[in-house]
Amino acid sequence: MALLLHDQTMSLYIGRETSKLWKRISAETITEVNLLAENWKYILGGLTCQYIHGLAARGVHYIHRPGPILQDTGFRLLPELGQERAYVSETVFTFVFLSFVLWSLHPFILKTKKIYTILIWCRVLAFLSACQFLRILTFYSTQLPGPNYHCREGSRFATLPRPDNPLEFLLIMPRGVLYGCGDLIFSSHMIFSLVFVRTYQKYGTRRFIKQCAWLTVVIQSLLIIASRKHYTVDVVVAWYTVNLVVFFLDRKLAEMPERNMGAPILPLSKDVRMKEENIKLVNGNTGDQRLRNQANGKVNEDSNNVVHADVLDNL
Q1: Torsion sign, CA atoms 185, 244, 43, 114
Q2: Pair 290, 307: CB distance under 8 Å
Q3: Containing H/E element for 311?
Q4: Cβ 124 vs Cβ 45: under 8 Å
């Protein structure tokens, strides 16, 4: 009897929590869809830049010429992992990438939330695009002989034959991404990892995870060199270039709105924003106060009625 009662209680609890989770996901989806409708140009622009970066990396492979590996301090200090263990650095990078993607989606699941998924990815894509633009300029300026195993003399992947048609060049295949050569300075893996970690450093809430994230990126840097996927200069340049780009660009971008830790706030539509501007012009700081109240999840209906009544009287 007691076991049956326990099972019924558990069933009720699971059903109630499932219902809460579904409502939370539905509410957050509405919020993010509204944000996407307002910011889709930035998302599309960022994704287009990712594609252009892929084309540029493929293009430099056509002009890559294998040669003797350059002298490198990191190669002398770090033992070579070898081809059979080259997957280790890719595994660490995949872990960093997937961890950030999952964290960016946590507002759909968790009660406590500090970010909007769409707005976070708008910033991340802006950082990535700026860094990749500099990267394209750099690796097209000087082509170094690739240190990776498939880029060395004697490898059939070291050079690419001329494409038979434009479609062959425009179509980016996974094999081309994995076996690219010539796009060395500076490391693309480090761009992604540093942008992700710096973003979590600012918007994340767990200090221990922040410390672990930075440590993971340091380990990834050493593994990239030990795997001979990049020269040490490629990693070093990435460290200061990405950090500087993110630092200065972050100051230029509009700051993300603070959201209530308990419930999502729907973004203001264009009409509402125009009304708020009229309120601000007519009533001084009243519009600002209302926006602050909304951001804190404390919208006072009486004050709203007074504000709009004042607007009508003045108009």
Answers
A1: positive
A2: yes
A3: helix 301-314
A4: no
What tens digit of pLDDT does each residue of 148-189 get?
999 999 898 888 888 888 888 888 776 666 788 999 999 999
Q: Between 117-141 and 87-104, two packed helices, what is the crossing angle to 10 degrees?
A: 150
Amino acid in position 51: Y
Say which residues have a Cβ less than 8 Å from residue 34's Cβ, sequence separation at least 6.
266, 267, 269
Q: For 228-271, what is each residue's pLDDT tens digit?
A: 999 999 999 999 999 999 999 999 998 888 776 444 444 444 45
Q: Which one-letter amino acid corresponds to residue 280?
A: K
Catalytic residues: 189, 230, 234
pTM comes to 0.78
User: Which pLDDT tens digit goes with each residue over 277-306?
Assistant: 554 444 454 444 443 444 444 434 343 443
Within a 13 Å sphere around the CA of 265, how many CA atoms are in the beta-carbon half? 21
Other Cβ atoms within 10 Å of 155 Cβ, number: 15
